[in-house]
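Internal QA ticket QA-208
Title: Verify multi-chain structure generation after dependency bump
Assignee: T.L.

Test input:
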Amino acid sequence: MIESILLFILAVLTAPFFSGIILKVKAFFGGKKGPPLLIQYFTLIKLIQKGSVYSRSTTLMFRLGPVISLCSALTVLLFLPIAGHAPVFSFHGDVIVVLYLLGLGRFFTIAAAMDTASPFEGMGAAREAYFPIICEAAFFMILILFSRLTGELSLTAYFSGQNPLSLWHLAGPPLLFVVFAFFIILLTENSRVPVDDPATHLELTMIHEVMVLDHSGPDFGLIELGSFCKLLFYSTLISRLILPFDLNPPLTFASYFAGLAAVSVAVGVTESVMARYRMDKVPQFILTSFALAFFATIITLEFI
Amino acid sequence: MVYALGQHDLKRLLAYSSVENIGIILMGLGIGMMGVSSGNPAMAVLGFTGGFLHVLNHSIFKSLLFMGAGMVLHGAGTRSIDALGGLLKKMKITGTVVIIGSLAISGLPPLNGFVGEFLIYLGGFKGLALDTSAFIMNIVAIISLAVIGGLALACFTKVVGVVFQGEPRTRAAEKATEKGSTMLVAMVVLAAACVLIGIFPGFIILLPLRAVASLGLGFEPAVFEPVIKITENLTFAAMIFLSALLLVVLIRSFFYRGKLIAASGTWGCGFTRPTVKMQYTGSSYASFILDFFRPVASLSEEHPAIQGRFPAKTHYKSHINDIAGLHMNRVVVDPIMFFFDKLRWIQHGDIHLYIGYILLAIVLLLFFI
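Actual output:
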């Protein structure tokens, strides 16, 4: 239990590092030296030292938005098996609680965005309310596959210890589809190219960035930390699937962090070689993940 | 739910979303029946309990939302979503309880809507171990629940965002006030019930369980144990979330100690004259999603184009065509109305002939009975 809590704290502390890797990879593709790997830590410290400016149109919901989004991201990490170790808490069906907690964070971020009475935030909020609908369908499809393979419904049953390896034994190649589907879901939920461009400064092209446009200071720091934790959550799912080894502890940690770094590099490469899709092509992109998960399920129907 | 997204009238939106919630209830009952037919008592109990609990939960949060809509109508004089805005600042209690109701109806933890949906999900996942046709049905049920949850979130963030957040869009909304303490008390009680049932479902779960037991399907009491364990898990998860919330609030207040907090206008990207009409309206919020569902929910829009090169006045009206409503009107309602129109001559307002009708009816009845 103590180890799980320590791992949780370690995960929260290292979450900004992987976002830094993505920035470094993107800079490399642009022939630039890029920001230092620890840039997001400096950003968080800088934000905490500032004060805030609040718009006169906003109410308490605007202050609640960052709090609840960070809180839901942290609670989600409590249920996640980190580095293959058992999570701090787990029970049957906790995956659904985790997904809906992320939805709770989304509700409050959208409400805080609409609170500013700015059309930019409204635009971002409308898009943010739309794309996760398809993402949830895809994630649940993957859950249906896993639940059919293992008969259980908790994150620890899929991603801790020997379980990912047994998933590969049970389903084999269709799990590759699942890895791709998870990658597409990661790109969508964390607002990466080709769904959203985190580096754009054109409000018309933003989704997530524009919703947090009016937040400043420690509030913004809370939001950034929450988004790093969400990125860590989705990267962990992929990392445990692509490197499902459960060896003696130092090697497992090494393989886990290597997996996270590999996912971050993959995200950076994707962001550098692709442009963001036109807004009406984005639903098709996310539906691809649903189709992949669906086909993975259909294929395994014969194997079992 | 898609039709709910397209509505401009607050109460119609709530009515359409009630249709969606009845669908969730029936899904739960269906999963329960599938459990009974496949001899899987655990699945049956989960499905039925989830369905019955959702009936209870829906009655609580839907009445809360309708009362909130009534307060909005009372205070601002209009039900049209696109004419309201910024009501959270003027009607604090109404706004807060409607936000709680919206969270509950979107099925978000730790409120009560989530508990019912969670049980239905668990029942559906249990049914995945069955054979092909039941398996497909369960997949459809789970995916639909997921999509419905997302659509409900979109719909009710529209309600909360456009009606209660932002700035008032019309004079009527600017003058909105909260009156009537008894109405407020009723809503606060319902909102408290939503929160309590969500965090401590163990207290209320006995009601649906008793209902399932009374169905007389021959379940032994041991089958109900897992459901109680599930509610304990949910309470546990809610407690973790609330403790994390407390921790984050404390951290935030620590960070904000001694910091400068200023107020200013919303950042307008260099616009010299932002107006409240520039905010996102309900229809713009929903239009993106409705575009995806166009075959089922077509939108008829009226938007005369601006002639000439300079900005001029125009208007935009949109109306979502309810396919069921349209076709029912054409096939059922119109022929019946046509037929009964022909019999209109019976109802002509002459009281003497009405008395004659009554006499005739009495005579016929006495004759035949």
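Spot checks passed. The two ends of chain B are 51 Å apart (CA to CA).
Status: verified.
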